[in-house]
Design brief:
Length: 593
């Protein structure tokens, strides 16, 4: 490849012996193949001088992608479609009662049949725009083929390989065009060219001149819709325009053009690209010219194809899971207890692509909703609301379809009393969670921080221990202190004092939670999955703390943040980025699609 184009143009015709021998089955194995479009046309009619050459109609079919297209031939020299006239001579002969000798019609040259298959790789979602583009290509590609073929005879290009010289010697010409995403084309690019990165278009020839077959198998053009979409945005035209440009580029490679071998070859291929686009009336510049235009501002390709799923890229991928269960503190929330713009965008994109996101947190439902509302993720169209599924308060409150309560677990009343007395005796702040309320025994800055920093409901101060216990069922209590105080004093004491009546859970270094025995997000997620009729194999889970361990082990894929607990990292399938590095967004882009 020429040095001035190497960072930008990364598409090549594969003419190695291995590529020639490669069967199309290797491509079609993962593709949805559209019905071939059969176009019959006379090589004598030049498309450039006969507008409206093809009148394409479809037979009755309920599916857009199972139409059959037929082409009518225009009468040379006239712009109107004509029907054959009645055989007047035959009628006249019958009236005179004698048989008239019929003249033999001159032998007509066999018309060339163009067979085009448009394929959509199975990992591409059922995106309406992609389907419409595929439908347009069924008509556009044969038109481009015919125009390119008509120019071969009079071609004066010196650098083009002439394995395909005159298509008039063939009965049929076959070509396939596959639309795929970056991940698929990256694998092909690595396998056939040894380059481990996505590209926009690959051309793979199937033509073997030595076989002298009546069928010209031009080969396959593979186009990454994802890369094409980015290039279309950069160049200011539509996705269809960009894919048409890539089709022209790929087809010229199959016809023997190769811009990589010399400056002259590059110039000749560029001229042919521009000529075809102009003759067809398609928008945009040829790929080679476009590469020159953006050369100075072109960004280097990322090392991993997963990085290219960001932005609008998720629309070109099918979800690998049905649900994502996501923790909040230390996971979705950064160290400032905020949802970053990148995380919010990734969650919105995931839901738009059909993934259901379920919050699994130690927070109360009002606390979770308050934070998510700030990022426009709460409410009827968000990922959490009073009518959506969710796992809250460490799995002690589980809500299912339409927000129906599936499970509620309460802390033993004697344990509640003992924790309250301990709080008063040692002056250590305690908050009791009772469904959508938070209760406490005295005012304290740390108690206020649970509301101002962690967005939990503002704690109600209850005058006595007896009144607090009688006020409502308590699901859990939290002690708040310094990190040192929690680890060296509070946790050792309550790990022994609760016995088998309660469990000790630590999600934050400066908090210790006392919960009913057997409490875990994992159990809450299990109950919710049973309620929804969903298998653990269908979910991906993201968390950071020890309280997330069972949930991560349960999921088909468990992702722990790099800021997570060491015990949690030991059981997770993947260690991702930290909560301050948009770890949730990174996990979604890399693993959910």
């Amino acid at each position: 490849m020429l040095s001035r184009l190497s960072p930008i143009l990364r598409h090549n015709r594969l003419f190695s012996a291995e590529a020639r021998a490669m069967t199309r089955a290797s491509l079609y194995h993962h593709a949805r193949v559209l019905q071939p479009l059969l176009v019959r046309s006379s090589p004598r009619i030049a498309l450039a001088t006969t507008p409206n050459l093809l009148n394409v109609s479809s037979s009755d079919s309920s599916s857009m992608f199972h139409r059959r297209f037929h082409a009518l031939r225009n009468i040379v020299g006239g712009g109107d479609w004509k029907l054959p006239k009645p055989a007047a001579g035959r009628v006249f002969a019958e009236r005179r009662e004698y048989r008239k000798m019929r003249k033999r019609a001159p032998k007509r040259k066999q018309e060339l049949e163009l067979s085009v298959s448009i394929c959509i790789e199975e990992q591409l979602p059922d995106d309406t725009e992609i389907q419409n583009i595929a439908e347009m290509l069924r008509v556009n590609v044969p038109m481009a083929m015919k125009l390119a073929f008509n120019g071969l005879k009079d071609s004066k290009y010196k650098t083009r390989e002439t394995d395909i010289e005159d298509v008039g010697g063939f009965e049929t010409v076959e070509l396939s065009v596959m639309l795929c995403n970056d991940e698929f084309i990256c694998k092909l690019n690595k396998e056939w060219r040894g380059e481990d990165h996505p590209t926009d278009v690959l051309s793979m020839s199937q033509h073997v001149p030595e076989l002298k077959l009546p069928v010209l198998m031009m080969g396959d053009i593979v186009i990454s819709v994802e890369t094409a979409a980015r290039q279309a945005a950069e160049r200011g035209h539509s996705l269809l325009d960009e894919i048409r440009i890539l089709v022209i580029h790929g087809m010229l490679h199959l016809l023997g053009f190769d811009h990589e071998i010399s400056d002259e070859a590059e110039k000749e291929m560029e001229e042919e690209e521009e000529l075809l686009l102009k003759s067809l009336g398609w928008k945009g510049k040829g790929l080679i010219q476009s590469a020159y235009d953006i050369e100075k501002t072109a960004k280097p390709l990322p090392e991993k194809s997963d990085d290219r799923k960001k932005g609008d890229g998720l629309r070109f991928y099918r979800p690998k899971f049905s649900y994502i269960f996501c923790d909040m503190d230390g996971t979705l929330l950064n160290s400032k207890s905020q949802i970053s713009e990148a995380n919010a965008k990734a969650l919105k994109e995931a839901t738009l692509r059909g993934l259901k996101v379920v919050i699994a947190t130690g927070k109360s439902r009002p606390g979770a909703m308050r934070i998510l509302k700030m990022a426009d993720l709460a409410g009827r169209d968000g990922i959490v609301s009073e009518s959506s599924p969710g796992v809250f308060v460490q799995g002690l409150l589980v809500y299912g379809r339409q927000g129906k309560e599936v499970y509620r677990g309460n802390l033993d009343r004697d344990v509640c009393r003992e924790t309250c007395l301990y709080s008063l005796e040692h002056g250590i702040p305690l908050i009791a969670f009772s469904q959508d309320r938070c209760l406490t025994l005295f005012d304290h800055p740390l108690v206020d921080s649970l509301h101002t920093t962690y967005n939990e409901p503002k704690a109600e101060i209850i005058s006595s221990v007896d009144q607090l216990i009688a006020e409502a069922d308590i699901q859990k209590v939290i002690f708040m202190d310094t990190t040192e105080g929690v680890s060296s004093v509070i946790r050792p004491y309550w790990s022994e004092a609760t016995g088998d009546r309660a469990s000790v859970v630590q999600a934050q270094s400066d908090m210790l939670e006392i919960v009913p025995p057997g409490t875990s997000k994992g159990n809450g997620v299990k109950m919710l999955l049973s309620h929804l009729g969903v298998s653990p194999n269908e979910i991906m889970a993201i968390g950071d703390g020890e309280n997330d361990m069972e949930m991560l082990e349960l999921a088909s894929l468990g992702v722990v943040m790099s800021n997570g607990a060491e015990k949690t990292k030991a059981v997770a399938d993947v260690i991702g980025m930290s909560n301050d590095e948009d770890g949730v967004a990174d996990a979604i882009y890399r693993y959910a699609f």
